[in-house]
C-alpha cells in the first residue's frame, strides 16, 4: 500500500498535497483499491467554496458510487479534466496523474487536523 510521506490524509480517504495556499486533492491508494475499477468522476463544484467535509463530487467504480469529501475548506479551482477520458488514472496513479481537484485553501490551520503518513497507516490497519 503506497502512502506518501509528503501528504495529509482525511478520515474519508482523501489526500491533500499543499503547495502554498493551493492544494491538490485526490483519493488514497487504499480508497482506490477498495473501490475497484474506477470508470467515472463527477465534479460540478468548480468555482464554489466549500467547507471541510462537504461533498465536492462523486466517484463511480464498476460496483459502487462514492461521494468525494473536502479534506479542508476551500475554493475548487480546477478539475483534472484528463479524468474525463481516463478515470482509471486514479487506479494506476492515485497520487500523481489521478489527482481530482485543485483548491485554494481557506484556512491552512485546518490541514493540521489531518493525518500524517504514520497516523493514516494506523487508521487503515497497516
Number of E-type strands: 9
The CATH architecture can be given as Beta Barrel
Question: Helix content range of the residues, please?
Answer: 10-25%
- At the first level of CATH, the class is Mainly Beta
- CATH fold descriptor: OB fold (Dihydrolipoamide Acetyltransferase, E2P)
- The domain tally reads 1
Gyration radius, rounded: 13 Å
Note the main sheet: 6 strands, antiparallel
Number of helices: 3
Helix/strand/pairing category: alpha+beta
- Poorly predicted runs of 5 or more residues: none
Overall shape: globular
- Give the overall pLDDT as a whole number: 96
Strand order across the largest sheet: 1-2-3-9-8-5
Straight-line distance between termini: 9 Å
Q: Which percent range describes the beta-strand content?
A: 25-35%
Going by CATH, what is the homologous superfamily?
A: RNA polymerase II/Efflux pump adaptor protein, barrel-sandwich hybrid domain
Order of helices and strands: EEEHEEEEEHEH
